[in-house]
Amino acid sequence: MSIKTIYKTGCLVILGLIITSFNYSNPLKGTWEYCGDVFNGKVEGAPTEYALQRKYSSKNYESFLLEKGEKPQKYEVGDYSLNADTCIETQTFSAQESKLIGVSIHYLYSIRNDTLTLSGTLPNGNAVKEFWKKAK
User: Fold this and answer.
1) How far is it, in rounded angstroms, from Cα 68 to Cα 65?
2) By percentage, how much of the chain surpasses pLDDT 70?
3) pLDDT digit string (tens) for 41-65?
4) Can you give the three-state secondary structure of the chain, one letter per residue?
5) Over the stretch 74-107, which tens digit does the pLDDT of each residue have?
């Protein structure tokens, strides 16, 4: 192998590394099922009569209430953005009256194995830490 060939190969490898370093993979994208939370220091489990599911696309999310024998009911929709370990969510629709529509909430997020943890303080001052398990 000539030095020219080695140089070209090395340049292609470096270029490939640079290009793939900008490939952003969204860790939230997919479907998550609610597993419970800690609300103001009180541990609460997931409901047993129904399930809550959240579907994250690249910039939006939709939340559904799932009951056996019933069609999924959309109860919340919003936009979100990620920046390092922060997830900023802004609710744009709620099936129930909500004071959070248009309000951005900052969460620290982490994903360990297949569990998403969202920790933050709601606008009313309540501390929340939610747990969501990856479904799909």
Assistant:
1) 10
2) 83
3) 999 999 999 999 999 999 999 999 9
4) CCHHHHHHHHHHHHHHHHHHHCCCCCCCCEEEEEEEEEECCEEEECCCCCEEEEEECCCEEEEEEECCCCCCEEEEEEEEEEECCEEEEEEEEECCCCCCECCEEEEEEEEECCEEEEEEECCCCCEEEEEEEECC
5) 999 999 999 999 999 999 999 999 999 999 999 9
Instruction: Tell me the average pLDDT of the chain.
Output: 89
Pick the closest to residue 51 from 124, 110, 113, 132 (CA basis): 132
List all residues 6 or more positions away from 73 whose beta carbon is below 8 Å from its beta carbon: 64, 65, 66, 67, 95
Q: How many CB atoms lie within 10 A of CB 108?
A: 13
Residue 80's φ and ψ, nearest 5 degrees, are: -150, 160
Report how far residue 79's alpha carbon sits from residue 57's, in angstroms, rounded to the nearest whole number.
Answer: 9
